[in-house]
Amino acid sequence: MGTGNATATVTRWSRAFVAVGIGFFVAWQVAVAVGAGRAATVPLGVFGFVLHVVFGKAYTLVPSYFARELAVPRAPALHLPLASVGALGAFAVGTGITSATVALASVASWLAGSLVFVGTLCWTVRDNPTGRETGTGETDAHRRRADRVANVAVPFVLAYLIVGSALPLAAALGLEPSVVPASGPATTHLLAAGTAAPLVFAIGCRLLPRLLGASVPPLLVSIVVAAGIAGPALLAADFRGGALFRVGAALQATALVGFAVAVLDLARQSDRRRVGGRAILSAAGCGALIAVLGLWFAFAPDAGLPAAAFDAHYRLAVGGFLGLTIIGVTYRFYPPAVASTLGIGDRTASASVAALVTGLGLEVAGLLASVPSLVGPGRWLSVAGASLYAVVLWTVFVERADWTR
């Protein structure tokens, strides 16, 4: 396969991953709004939305950040159906409407897809495993140190993905490892906090400075990446336990707050104001709130937080920090302004961000203040925002099907 054809293949399937992930995003928001439990909604949000988009963009970004080209251009085409079946199966298991055989098949499918992803990226960077070669051009030579630090996160991200994907299969087979619980919130943290968040930190510290025409101090990148790598392992190994859990919560909070500081500083330096920027800033704010709640859970669990605080934490993490970051970045990669369809453009994109941020704010305020009258409207406003986001991006994809980005 020629280089041009290989690039087009990777791009096409990367975009397909993002498009499917957006569909899961809408489904997740609707499921939460109608009152589905966390066991059913978490797979839609984490496996379906966050990780599908992460997989799609990682297939195009990670090789370039390691100065390589994807070694197996058709790997995303194999991975996508496996990941989708795994996410849908996990949702079905969470609703309690499926059999043990289907549950086993879904976790096996998810693990198989994850192995395709990890194997492909490992083979791609096999002669540059630490990311010392960054693909950074001479005009960005001053960013090279920070780029190398950010690249260090990638091998750990892949390790978290394999462990977090293998544990549910172990649980389905009746195998219970002694170090990390084989199912439940601890495993979800390995995927959300261990796989998705550090990749957001790493890619964000490389991508956002270029998008905003600004710089982030390498020392801050080092702190964010190191804390973001170590924290999830401790959280999962001693979930809601003792000293290890508290240390893990402190490290995770350090990474989230450090990344928020980096984003705010980049925004301060930049004079570029484009659609999606408010989503990224809002995501940074959500990250800081997650850090506060996480520290509260770890160090003052009996201090009077309502039971719904755990739902607020989960929604801020998946829909706020991870979700709004994804939305802001995808609006940069796929600018709504290029759409020619009537009613689709920057204003529609801005409206989607406003609805999502306002909806999440109302929901979280209602959950933390025990005001149920705010929660329902907030969730349905998030559904409206997610639907607008989907319409905008899907329209751009359809109209610009020949893009090589």
UniProtKB/TrEMBL annotation:
The keyword Transmembrane helix applies. It comes from the Archaea. The chain crosses the membrane at residues 16-36, 42-66, 78-97, 103-125, 152-175, 187-207, 219-237, 243-267, 279-300, 312-333, 353-374, 380-398. Keywords: Membrane, Transmembrane, Transmembrane helix. This is Uncharacterized protein. It comes from Natrinema gari JCM 14663.
